[in-house]
Amino acid sequence: MIQKKICMLGASAVGKTSLVKQFVEGIFSDKYLTSIGVKIDKKKLEVDETTVQLMLWDIEGVDRYAGFNPKYLRGAAAAIIVVDQTRTQSFLEGIEICRLVKLEKEIPIFLVANKSDLPKSESWDSAADCGVTSLFELSFSTSAKTGEGVEDMFLNVAKAALNK
Amino acid sequence: MSALLYQELGIFDCVVLKHIKDDSFLIHFANDNWFNTLFPGMHVGDEIVLDDTPYYLVDFLYDAKEFWGLNSQGRINSGIWSEQVGRKVLRLEAAAISKKDENFLVLFNLENEYNKRQSTLQIARELLISNDKVLEQHEVIRERIEALAVQQNNRSSINLPVTEVIQGAEFGVAIISHEYQPIEQNPALFKLFEMQVGDGGQPAALLMDLCGRQFPEFQRILDTRSRWSGELYWMKPPSLSRWMQLTVCPIESEIDGLYWLLLVTDVSREKYLQQSNEKLTYFDVLTNLPNRQYYWQCLENAIDGGQSFFAMQLDIRQLKTINEVFGFAVGDTVLKELAERLRQLISPNDVLARIGGNEFAVILREAPHQNCEQIARRMVSDICAPYYVMEEQYKCSVGVSIGVSHFPYDSVIAEELMKYADLASFTAKQSGKNVVQFYSRELKDSSLRRMELEAALRDAIENGEFELFLQPILDLSTGKVSQAEALIRWRRPDVGLVFPDEFIPIAEKTGLIIAIGKWVIQEASRLLSQLHENGQYIKLSVNLSPAQVSDRSLLHFIKEHIETNEVDPTYLELELTEGVLVNDFERINHFLSEVRKLGVSVAIDDFGTGYSSLSYLPKLPIDFLKIDRSFIGELIDSESNKAIVLAILAMAESLKLGVIAEGVEVESQKAFLSKHRCQSAQGYLFSRPVPFDEFCKLL
C-alpha cells in the first residue's frame, strides 16, 4: 500500500487538529485545546482505484511560542496550510509559513480556509484578495465543525500527493 | 536494585535502547508502566527493530544516525510527540545520545511536562488570539472612520455615515473633539460602563480620565497626536470591575480638523485567565522579561529603597517595517535577540522590562562604576547593530530612542519618573536619530513651548495668520524682475513675524504641512490673479514639501485654484527639492507630467545639495534648476564652488533647462554668474522677501 506523508501547518487555533479529527474519526469538539509537538494520524483513501494511506502530521501551531521546524517536512508529499477565516492575522501567518515551506522543499502546498461555518472577518476579503493564492496548488474552504469540504479537500491532497 | 527504586520513584521514567546496527536496538532499560503499551510483548534484553512504527520515532532515526555518525559526545532531541496507542495517548520525546563509542536512543515519557506546558500555552495562545481579534476589529473601524473623515465634503454630512459605522460595533466606540468633548458614543460604550444612553452619563470622559490616571505618558500622547493602545482597569464599587483594551487614534479631517477615536473592548475574561498563571501576569512571554505591571512594582520598590537610580525608556523603531517585510515571526526573533543584547549590558541588580509592543524600560542603579550615559550609548550601538534573520540570509536593523529620568533628582514619584523618561524618549525620537536624551527642566519647558507652537500653528490656518512674502528673481541680462518666489510668513499675535525655518519642521512632523501647503497654493493663485489684473505678468513659484507631493488630491487642488482665480497657469511654478525626486521616481514623474499638462512649470530647488543622481534629470519634466545658496555664498573665494556652479550651468544648458542662482548677495557674485550665462538670480543684493504691496512697487 502506498503511504504519503502530509504536513498540517498553520498558526495556532486555526483548526488543524479538528480537521484531522473530523476526517479520521468523524468527530468535532467545540473546546479549543492547544496542541504541543506533533501527532501522527493515518487514514486510508481510495484514489482512482489506488489505496493510499495518508500519514497526517498534525504539527503544533506556528506562533511566537513555537517556531517553524523544517525537519518536519522530511519525506512529506504535500503540505496543508490551514488558516482561520475569522482571523485575518492567521492568513498572513499562513502566507509566511508557505514561504518558509517553499524555501525548504518543493511540494504541493494547499491553502485551507477553515471555520467556514462562521462569518469571515471583516478584513478577510481585502487581505485574501491580493494575488497570493497563486502560491498554492489549490485552495479550499472547510468547516471542521460541520465537516463541509473536509473529505473533498483531503481527497484532492491525496491525488496531488500521488501524482508527485 | 537502584534502577528499580528509581523507577518506583518515577525518576527513570524512560526507555533506553542501545543501538546495535541499522534499525536494530537492544532494550537496555524500560519503565514497565508505559513501555509495554508502546512495544507490546517486548522485554529488557530483547532486540527490537524500529523500521516502521512508531512513525515519529522512525523519522527521528534519520537525525539520530547522522548524529551518531559524527562520533561526537552529547545528545540531540526529537521534540515532543503524541503517540496514540489504542485509546491511550503517550506524550514522548526521544534523545539520541553518544557515550564512549556507544550509541543510545532514550525515550522519555513527558506526560507531566506536556500537561504543564499545555496549560500555560493554552492560556497564552487564547490571549494572543483574543488580542489579535480585538486589534483587528479596532483596525477595521478605525480605517472606515478615517476613510469617511477624508471623503466627507462638507460639515453637515459628517455625522451620518460615521454614526452608522459605530452604532453597530460590538465594542465601545467614542469620537471626541480636539477639545475632548464627546461627539459620538455608541451604546456598547455606555454598556461597558454600566450606563444607559440618555441618562446623562459620559463614558468617553470617564475613559479619558482613567487613561490620564493610569498612564503617565497619556498627556504626551494627546499633546503630540500619537496613536496609542493599552489596557485600563475600571472599578465600580462595591464589586464590579473591568479590564479594557483601549486604542486611541487621532483622525485628521481637512474640514473639521482633529478628532480622537477611542475604541474599547472588555478583556476582563482574558485578564483573569492571565492572572490565573503567575508567569503570564508578570512576564512578557516572548522575551521572558518582566512586563509593564511588574516593572511598575519594581520602580516603586526601587523608590522605597531610597538608593538613587536612572529610569530609562527605550522606544524601538522600524519594528513595524520588519514585521511587514519579513513577517511577525522574524519581528519576534529580532525582539528576542534585542532583549538578549540589552540583558548583556545591565547588571543583575538592574531591572530590564518590556513595557509595550516596542518599548523597553530599565531601572539602572547608580553606582560608582556605572555611567548611565555610557551604558545608554552602548545600548544604542548594540540595538542598532544588524540582525541576521531567516537562517542568516537577510539582514535587518532597528533604531532606538532612549529617554532617561533620575531618582531622586528629577522626581521621587514613580508616575513622574516614567512620564519624564517617556517625554525624553519622545524628544529623542523627534530628532529622528538614534540618541539618548536625559530629562531636564529645560527639556520639559522646550517641549511645552513646542506643543504651544503646534497648537498655535493649528489656529493660525483658521485665523488667517499666514502671509505670502515675495522675493524678486531678476533676469540677469535685462536687470528686470522676471519672476518671484512666494515665501510664507506667520504673523503670530503677540509674538510678531515667525520665519518658516521655525514652524515648517513642526508642520511637517504634525502633518499640518498639507493644509499649510494648500493655503500657499491658494494664496499664490490669488496674488497671481491680482498681478494679472494690474497688467503684470510675472511668474510666481511656490515650494512643495515631500508630504504634499504624496497627497493625491494636490493635482486637483492646483487645477481648481487656477480655474477659480482665472490665472494663466504658465505663470505658476512649483519648486521641489532633489530628495523628493528620487524618493519615488515613477510617481513623481507622473505627477510632474500632469502638472506640466496644466501648463505649470517645475523647478528643482536647492540644486546640488541633495541626492545628486543626475541621471534622473533628463527623464523628468523639469524647467529650471535653482543653484543652492551654499554654492553662491562662497562662489568668489572657493575654486570648488566655482567649478560646481560652472558644471551646473553647462549641464543645464545641454539639457535646455533654465538656471536661477539663489542667495546672491554681492556684485562680484552677480558678475560671475552673468559672465557665465546664468539667466536669473535672486538674493539680498536685489531684494529680500517683501509683502505683496511692496513687491508691486519694485515692478
UniProtKB/TrEMBL annotation, chain A:
<dbReference type="GO" id="GO:0003924">
    <property type="term" value="F:GTPase activity"/>
</dbReference>
<dbReference type="InterPro" id="IPR005225">
    <property type="entry name" value="Small_GTP-bd"/>
</dbReference>
<keyword id="KW-0547">Nucleotide-binding</keyword>
<protein>
    <submittedName>
        <fullName>Small GTP-binding protein</fullName>
    </submittedName>
</protein>
<dbReference type="GO" id="GO:0005525">
    <property type="term" value="F:GTP binding"/>
</dbReference>
<dbReference type="Pfam" id="PF00071">
    <property type="entry name" value="Ras"/>
</dbReference>
<dbReference type="InterPro" id="IPR001806">
    <property type="entry name" value="Small_GTPase"/>
</dbReference>
<dbReference type="InterPro" id="IPR027417">
    <property type="entry name" value="P-loop_NTPase"/>
</dbReference>
TrEMBL record, chain B:
<dbReference type="InterPro" id="IPR035919">
    <property type="entry name" value="EAL_sf"/>
</dbReference>
<dbReference type="InterPro" id="IPR043128">
    <property type="entry name" value="Rev_trsase/Diguanyl_cyclase"/>
</dbReference>
<feature type="domain" description="GGDEF">
    <location>
        <begin position="307"/>
        <end position="441"/>
    </location>
</feature>
<dbReference type="InterPro" id="IPR029787">
    <property type="entry name" value="Nucleotide_cyclase"/>
</dbReference>
<feature type="domain" description="EAL">
    <location>
        <begin position="450"/>
        <end position="699"/>
    </location>
</feature>
<dbReference type="InterPro" id="IPR052155">
    <property type="entry name" value="Biofilm_reg_signaling"/>
</dbReference>
<dbReference type="InterPro" id="IPR001633">
    <property type="entry name" value="EAL_dom"/>
</dbReference>
<dbReference type="Pfam" id="PF00563">
    <property type="entry name" value="EAL"/>
</dbReference>
<protein>
    <submittedName>
        <fullName>Diguanylate cyclase (GGDEF)-like protein</fullName>
    </submittedName>
</protein>
<dbReference type="Pfam" id="PF00990">
    <property type="entry name" value="GGDEF"/>
</dbReference>
<dbReference type="InterPro" id="IPR000160">
    <property type="entry name" value="GGDEF_dom"/>
</dbReference>
